[in-house]
TrEMBL record:
This is L-ectoine synthase. The gene is ectC. PANTHER family: L-ECTOINE SYNTHASE, PTHR39289. The keyword Nucleotidyltransferase does not apply. Pathway: Amine and polyamine biosynthesis; ectoine biosynthesis; L-ectoine from L-aspartate 4-semialdehyde: step 3/3. Catalyzes the circularization of gamma-N-acetyl-alpha,gamma-diaminobutyric acid (ADABA) to ectoine (1,4,5,6-tetrahydro-2-methyl-4-pyrimidine carboxylic acid), which is an excellent osmoprotectant. NCBIfam families: PRK13290.1 (NF009806). Its EC number is 4.2.1.108. It comes from Actinocorallia libanotica. It is an enzyme of class 4 (lyase). Keywords: Lyase.
């Protein structure tokens, strides 16, 4: 059994910072459970273009408001607490944070904690060291 609090993560190497977001990685590939779990904050007034070409991501909003744009279809979706979206087709998307957004994210395959978005918004597929 693994038990952690968010306070255990903040300020460690699992607290990953970027210009438009921070991601607190609660469960990573090294835990060997088949997914990773992230508590992510997107900063108010920012837009983040992403494309998870190598991962499936499920996202559940627990705070704030924003808009999700499917860059492949142009579809727009309001994001607010209680909204979930699943990127089951590796869609290129942009998340606009109208206010600070707090999102719970699940990735498969699991992230190692070393991933950062490349110039296309992609997380590379990083394997966990044996």
């Amino acid at each position: 059994m693994i038990v952690k609090s968010l306070q255990d993560i903040i300020g460690t190497d699992r607290d990953v910072q970027a210009p438009t977001w921070c991601s607190r990685r609660l469960v990573l590939a090294k835990e060997k459970v088949g997914f990773s779990l992230h508590d992510t904050i997107l900063y108010a007034g920012t837009s983040t273009a992403m494309w998870y070409a190598n991962h499936i991501e499920a996202v559940y909003c627990i705070g704030g408001t924003g808009e999700l744009v499917n860059e492949e279809t142009g579809e727009r979706h309001d994001i607010a607490p209680g909204t979930m979206y699943l990127l089951d087709g590796h869609e290129r998307h942009t998340l606009h944070a109208h206010t600070e957004l707090r999102m719970i994210c699940v990735f498969n395959p699991p992230c190692t904690g070393r991933e950062v978005h490349d110039e296309h918004g992609v997380y590379p597929l990083v394997e966990e060291d044996a």
